[in-house]
Fold these 3 entries.
Entry 1:
Amino acid sequence: MTSRGDPPSSLGPNVSVGSGHRDRSTDPHRSRLPHGQQSPKRTLYLSAFAALKDPLSGAYYDRKRAVGKRHKQALIALARRRSDTLHAMLRDGSIYQPKTPTAA
């Protein structure tokens, strides 16, 4: 487990939500490439998909799409953001307090 001061990226490869693409043609151990555990990835991905109904998460997704990201890339970015929020909550021992959107 991570210590209190570790950044969210230190959760390790088992919980990353990135694509994990790697050139397999040059790797002699093709069947043993580490891509993390699929269960946490799937959970974060489905959580991000369900969170699209939330106004804050939906706005974040829309911003990513406006920047030019495709659907899956924007969803993975949202999943990563939710993972970072979860890590901060565990690190600080706090509960989730949604921020109210400000009119800009």
Note: The helical segments are 38-50, 55-67, 71-92.
Entry 2:
Amino acid sequence: MLRKKSHPLSDESMNIYNKMIPKSSILREIKKYIDFNFIYEEVKNFYDPYLGRPSEDPIRLVKAELLKVMFNLRGDDELLAEISDRASFREFLDINLDEALWDRSTLVKFRKKLGSKTTDKLLSKVIDLCAKHKLIDGNHEVIDGTNVKARARILGNRDNIYVDSSNIDSKKKQI
């Protein structure tokens, strides 16, 4: 059953978010300029209007996927950890400070229900709207800081293809 957002952020949560989050936050700008209500129309055929438990608001879930893309989060677990930790993420998703966060399976089931084509289409549309309003420009710098386990110590009996074993034997004799 499709559930639309049933309640806005509480005054208490908004007061705290206003003290913690800069007015110029990119997430506040996106929330201000982008109307996410088109998502309800796009996903209504995936939900039975009468049967089943009420779903998590699909706008929240699409916004969560957007956060994952924008902030290069590596998966649902990292996304949920960041939502729990960052006030700006919680405000962007309209989650009150005292509201429980959904678990990983909610995101998985949402993507599975819509399928990859629809999920990608929704995310692409949101990104296009952000670009249209000049909230994002697509220019970014990527720095690869991947830790790689290297074979720094080459052994003659193990790495014959890398070194001439006679060269290693002569070095052993010198020591």
Note: The chain is about 55% helix and 0% strand.
Entry 3:
Amino acid sequence: MRQIAIMLALVAAATASAQNFKPGLWELNNKIQTGDPQRDEALAAMATQLKNMPPEQRARLEGMMSKNGISLPTAGADGGIVSTACLTPEMAARKELPISQNGKCSSTQTPVAGGLDVTFSCSEPKSSGSGQIRFVDENHYTMNATVNADAGGQGQTVKVNTRARWLGASCPARPK
């Protein structure tokens, strides 16, 4: 899961370099496919577990994530995992995203008609991948990515398909 979060952060970072990407609150609807029915089922179960989490535990987790401008993911109506992320004007100017990244990663973004092509490589945690970001308009983009990760000593390939939409210029206040 950590590798998927890093891939989403890197691909989102590439998005910040495109002129169409604007500061504000973004909703991300991610569909993740591992190619392994058991793992795909576990991802779906995770969203249900988050939904049914005890209120105190949920509040702690929401507090930790909100410090990075990210909402606690929820299950989308179409089976995706939905979250929101805030990109402040200052962060956009620095090309910095609200998703914290603890790994040692590098990425390359190549502008193409309608968006960007992205590749990345991380040494900690060991993972790599590539993706395409395509802007639908100034308020929407799609991303399709393939992530190759070392999960528990076993190689794993994950496909991530994201639909993103800009919700507005205002973001919820972050806790201090």
Note: The chain has one domain: 2-168.
